[in-house]
Amino acid sequence: MLCQTCLTMEDKRPIRQSHVHSVRTSREELVNKIKNSKCLLENLTEHGFFSTEDAEIVMQFSTQSDRVRQILDLVESKGEEVSEYFISVLQRIPEAYFNLKPWLEEIHFEASEKILCLTVKNNDPVTVFSRKLKCELCCDVKYIKSYTEREEMMLQETYVNGIMELISAANENMGRMEDLSTLFDGNGVINEDGETIFVFGDAGMGKTLLIQKLQNMWAKGDHFCDIKFLFRFRCRTFSLFKKSTLITLEDLLFKYNCNPDHDPEEVYRYMLHFPETVLFTFDGFDEIHSDFDLNSIPEVSSPFTPTHPVVLLSQLLSGKLLKGSKKVLTARTANQVPRNIIRKKIMLRGFSTENLHAYTSLFFKEPEIHKRVIDHLKANHNFSSLCSIPLFCWIIFKSYEHFHSNNDFQEFSSSSVTLTDIFLLISEVYMNLSSNVFSLKGASRSQSETFKKGKDTLLSVGRLAYYGMEKSMFVFDHDAVTSVSISENDLKLGFLRTVKEYSELGDHSSFEFFHMTLQSFFTALFLVIDDKTSSAELLKYFSQCTYTVDRELANSPWSCICARRDIKGDPFKNNDHLQFINLFLCGLLSKPKQNLLKDVVHPSILKMKRKALKQKLYQSVKSHLKSLPRSPYLEYNRVHALTHFIWMARCICETQSEKVGKLAAKGICADYIKLSFCGASSSDCGAISFVLNHYHKKFALELDNNNINDYGVKELIPCFNKLTVIRLSVNQITDEGAKVLYEELIKYKVITFLGLYKNLITDFGARFIARIIEECPKLKRVKLGYNRFTEEGGTYIGHAIRKSTSVCDIGMWGNQIGDVGAHAFAEAIMNHPSLTHLSLACNGITTEGGKWIAEALQQNTSLKILWLTENKLTDEAAEHFANMIKVNKTLRHLWLLNNQITNDGAEVLSEALEHNTVMEEICLRGNPLSLGEHRPFEENSRIFCT
Ligand SMILES: Nc1ncnc2c1ncn2[C@@H]1O[C@H](COP(=O)(O)OP(=O)(O)OP(=O)(O)O)[C@@H](O)[C@H]1O
């Protein structure tokens, strides 16, 4: 039956030249282009077309072309079927014979069913290498690199998606990327010529884990199937190469990453030919530290010329090498990468409430403890806001797990937890787990006992951390480790882990801290507990972190690689981890930690260090606040704070000192604090709150474009009694945050400006916003654009505005309130006493809704500007607006851009203007008008059509 089908199909095919003929006439082309004879021999022998002797004869020839000639002789002599199978192999292993594709098309080769039924083994070097890479990555990412050697976790058991946001070239939020599988699609592309997907985020947001997840998805074969090779690099590797190192790209890939088992040349040739099949991941661009002479970078880039590895990195990223390959680069937020190389920008914002719940379920499998943790998170927003940063969440959960197993929840009972607290906790957990310090298995030891017992360990691990910081070193070879007397047992505690990929660099035992923030913590701990550390040493990082614009520029590794070859000193030096050292110093030398440290460091030394730090902090806070730019703004005296202010607030908060808080509050000397685009997270709101809580006057706070989410809103609770302006636009706030705002703002009723543009508030949250509008008698401006309000939400807000006698400016741009919502707004407009500015742009309002609004405006004497841009208003709506214009004598600007008004509607509006001398402009740009017909509306100076 099958044979008959085959025959019938063959009968229908067009008559072709014989396969023997094709092989014979293309002999020279085949000899030149076939670079892999092994695959052919393997398959021809497998199906009995070649005998073992045939294969042996072929292999006797030493050059590739002679082997191919011999194969061709044999194939030809064996006739039609063997020739057909031979050509079929060439077609079915495109990785090995890609340069024969045009030839196969030219001869219109199509194998018969019979030949297609014969298997073809794909063991060409490209496929074998791709399989090897997948296998290596699969094994590797099965586990997150162990934090303690005894504890490795399956990636899928611990990874949950965090918030991934697409960012525009102008650094604006373009919406979320819901799933990693869409990483390379067209959504969110900001530059078609760029090849690098730039993933950035603050410390511990999960950049490294995202890369691991990506590798895992590829290696499992479910996603990114067009990628054959994935090379992952950690940028800190590049710091380990000597100044004089010169290698080729091929070496970098095969020697320092993964080596093909067969024919590396052929694999490399394939990659150069098909760069789009190669993906590079470069993790931690901010961690590069290199001291070779930048001026020696040769401008020419060739895939065969040896050069310094950092140059190879820069040439790969900029597309000078392997143009067309895909690149994923990660870095901390503050690091700048030139726009022209970036294809997409993705910002990691940490865990949302849902992500956090998902992570909790993964982490705590036991229902009872899972519930307990969820309850704890709900009750304590200080914990929740720390947990929105995945690294801190992991540390807190890890500690929670430990103390739970010891039935000791004391550590978690405090309502206020600082970052220093959680790093002390994880240190305690690891020290307790160690047999070195802890001999009474099962019993729990107090924190101070643990630290007292483990002082030597803390000192030696701390010394290593400090030594690394001094040299901008994050990976330590065995000599470095032994030089600070870290014992084998200390190494096993879990603070340090072995670094596998450095073995290729000739060093079999390199180590790094499990996270860079832990290295910062240990550096601070060392500076505090080491008796010999002077005050100058203790405080030196404060001077290195003083804010200057120049420093910010110099901190970009790229500025050095690409353009600024003239920078003196270490251009790669990144000071984020130095900021963390200062923060931990403030925490460790704070009053509440003295009890813990008194047994580890001599009280007189501790006293001296506390005093020195206090003075330095006072000085730094004062001079920082003094240097901030100030300007009058509306009725306020505005201070424009920058990211450095957030670091200052974090440090102050770590001290937990009222006195320092008061000093900072006093030094601000302004009543409008602008903190937009400062990279503030939800837990930073706790720090901001700590400082501003000491502020006695009422003040305005602008936190637009940060990452504060609902937890951040909760952290601001202590400030709401004094806040007259709160601007929280573009901050991932949901209905939960809206509820908190409602509960707080109506308690004090001092708010005049509420900015919530571009958040995630739905109709449910609209009820809370409506109540705020109704119940706060001083509220004038409310910005609610680009939330998720539909008809229902629009109606709540419209009704609330009707009741308010104070609101004057309402922004609803980019919601979907439709005609029903427009009706509620129409009711609000009618006879409203105070509303002067209203935007209902981009809200799906049709002529019906437009009609309501126009009619209501006939009875309004307050509104001056109305935006109805990007709705669905037609000529019929224009007629209603025309009637309104004849009556209304207050409205000055009517924005009707991008609607469906034609020349007729424009004409009616133009005629109506003859009865109105107040209206200054009606904007009709983007409507379907046919211009150039010299219609009167075109001549009307108050109608804008172009
Ligand atoms: N998506 C996630 N799901 C679960 N856990 C996560 C996730 N992201 C991060 N973590 C936890 O946080 C830890 C730190 O994350 P990671 O090292 O990826 O941060 P990072 O952004 O690379 O930090 P840095 O910039 O300091 O290098 C992880 O080892 C893991 O425990």
Question: Summary?
Answer:
With about 950 residues, the chain is of the alpha/beta class. Belongs to the NOD1-NOD2 family.
Question: Topology of this structure?
Answer:
Layout: H1 2-12, H2 19-25, H3 27-33, H4 38-46, H5 52-60, H6 64-78, H7 80-92, H8 101-106, H9 113-116, H10 125-142, H11 155-158, E1 164-167, E2 173-176, E3 196-201, H12 207-219, E4 229-234, H13 249-254, H14 264-273, E5 278-283, H15 309-317, E6 326-332, E7 342-348, H16 353-363, H17 367-379, H18 381-387, H19 390-405, H20 419-433, H21 447-453, H22 455-470, H23 478-483, H24 488-491, E8 496-498, E9 511-513, H25 516-529, H26 535-544, H27 549-554, H28 557-563, H29 576-588, H30 594-597, H31 603-627, E10 630-633, E11 636-640, H32 643-655, H33 658-668, E12 672-674, H34 682-692, E13 699-702, H35 709-715, E14 723-727, H36 735-748, E15 753-755, H37 763-775, E16 781-783, H38 791-803, E17 809-811, H39 818-829, E18 837-839, H40 847-857, E19 865-867, H41 875-887, E20 893-895, H42 903-913, E21 921-923, H43 936-939, E22 943-944
Parallel strand pairs: 3-6, 3-7, 4-5, 5-6, 11-12, 12-13, 13-14, 14-15, 15-16, 16-17, 17-18, 18-19, 19-20, 20-21, 21-22
Antiparallel strand pairs: 1-2, 1-7, 8-9, 10-11
Helix pairs in contact: 3-6, 4-7, 5-6, 10-12, 17-18, 18-19, 18-35, 19-20, 22-25, 25-29, 26-29, 26-31, 29-32, 31-33, 32-34, 34-35, 35-36, 36-37, 37-38, 38-39, 39-40, 40-41, 41-42
Adenosine-5'-triphosphate binds next to helix 12 and helix 19.
